[in-house]
Amino acid sequence: MKVKQNTQKTDGLHFILSVPLIYQAIQFIFKHEQTERRFSDFIGEKRNKRILDIGCGIGFDSQKYSDAFSYTGLDLSQKYIDHARQFYGDYGSFYCCSVDEMSNLNLQKFDIVLLKGVLHHLADEQINNMVKTLRNHVTQGAIFVAVDPTFYSGQNFIAKWLISNDRGKNVKNKLESAHFLKSLFADFQSTHTKQFIPPYDRLIVRGIFKI
Q1: Domain range for 113
Q2: Domains in the chain, number
Q3: CA torsion sign, 164 to 167 to 169 to 173?
Q4: Is the distance from CB of 178 to CB of 149 less than 8 angstroms?
């Protein structure tokens, strides 16, 4: 699904995140090793797998999947995709399009679908429709792995404030989010990671596409 304008904050300071180098700097500040490890664990074996990265941003993560059979990144920002092609074009293919437009690219089916910081930009109906569309583009047994900021009871107030001011307008409580996503996938798993500096909380989920 396309991310509609009203599901993402683009005013004030949020606007500057459209600049690739500023986006990259913010990603570096909020990088969290434990989250990266658990995300990688949920992905599992990558060799000989076709990977689709939805919301690939500036393409930096493509370097992590050099041992995969192929890596394809999608993003709605032409600035991000231009940056990805310029600096990370050797690691994969990058397209400025939505999931709805994938059929126009004549791509082979994927074994792994990744979304980092995407779902909290989407309403439940958009997520549901996106998953339905993706089922036409994945192999039998393909896995879905996503990570997003999350709320939970007793959360650090700074983490809650930071997450409340994220560009995405649809951040959910971790239990609510996990319950909804569990209905869309088989063999669903989830885990919660806590970052202390800066304070931040994330929900990582994994599931197998129902085809």
Answers
A1: 5-209
A2: 1
A3: negative
A4: no
